Amino acid sequence: MKIAQISTNTIPVPPKAYGGTQRDVYYLTEELVRRGHEVILFAKKGSKAQATETFEYPTDDPDEQLDFIMKNLPDDVDIIHDHYGIVANANPPIPTIRNSHSKGVTGVQIPVYVSKTILKRYGKNKGYYVHNGIRVNDYSFRKKKSNYLLFLGRLIEQKGVHLAIEVAKKTGKKLIIAGTLNDKKYFNSKIKPHLNKRIRYVGPVGGKTKMNLLAKASCVLFTSTWNEPFGLVLIEALASGTPVLGFKKGAVPEVLKGLPKLLCNNTKDMISKVQNRRNFPSARRCRRYVRTNFSDSIMTDNFLKLYRQIIKGEKYKIIKNSTWNKKLINNQNKELE
C-alpha cells in the first residue's frame, strides 16, 4: 500500500521534546514501513522518520505548502492520512483521512479522532476514532522508584500545574515540573512563588532526560482540568512502569479504563491516593497495560484496517467541486500561460 502522511509545519518528526501529533506521525510512519508499506511523508524541515520518501515544506505559507504537496504527491498513492488539515480541507479525489488530535472537524471526507470521547463530544459521532500509540521499548523501565512526583506537560492553567503543586505540598512530597513555558503570566503568579528545593521547574525535556524522569518518578500527576482529547503523558508514564493519577476529564477515563483506581474525582482524592500507594498497580502491570492497549503496533493495526475499508469504498465518498480540483486547474492554467 502507498500511503501519504501529512504532518504539520510546526515541529519536526519526531519531536525532540513536546509534540504529541508529530510523535504519532513518527511511530505510525516507522511501523508502516517496517511492515512493507510505502510511506510518503510531508513534514517540517529537519524531520528524520524512516519514510520511503520525505518531503520537507519549503515555506511557512499553507497555500504554498498545499501546492508543494500537490506537485510531489505520487499519482499512484492509495490513501492520504492528513494530521495537518490542509490536504483534507481541499478534498482531493483520493481517499483522505483527516486525523484530528484535538478539535472537531467538518467538510472533510473522513474525520478520525484520537479517542471515542472526542469523537462523541466534538465530532458528534460523525467519523471514527483510533487511539494514540507509542513504541513501548523506547521508554525506560524501572521497578524501583525515586521519591518524587512528576508533572510533565505545557505550563498553562488548563493543565493544572498549580494543582500538582497543591498535591505535593499537602503530601509533603518532592515535585519536579517539566515542560514548555507557554503562559508567563500564569507561571509568574501560580507556579514561580512556590518553587524551592522541594518543588523544582526543570524546563522542557526530551530524549533520555524525559525517559529517566518518567521511569524514576514514584507517580506522575496528570492534573489537566479541560477535556483532554487523549493525554499522551498517561501512556508514556505507564510504559515507564510509573503509575499516573488523572482527573476524570475528557478522554482520561477512557485511557485509564483498565486501571480505574488511578482515576481521581478531585484534588483531595488525588492527595489521598498519593498518600496511600497500596492500590497502585505494579510497574510491570503498568507497562503491560500500554503494550496490550496503546502500542504503536496496535495503533497501526487499527489504521490499516480503516485504510483498507476506505480503499474498498466502504467509507469513502468523492466530494465534487473541491478546492483541490479548482487549485489543480488554476495551476495547470498558469503553466500554459
Automatic annotation (TrEMBL):
Keywords: Transferase. It comes from Paenibacillus prosopidis. InterPro entries: Glyco_trans_1 (IPR001296), Glyco_trans_4-like_N (IPR028098), Glycosyltransferase_grp1 (IPR050194). The keyword Zinc does not apply. GO terms for molecular function: glycosyltransferase activity. PANTHER family: SULFOQUINOVOSYL TRANSFERASE SQD2. This is Glycosyl transferase family 1. It comes from the Bacteria.
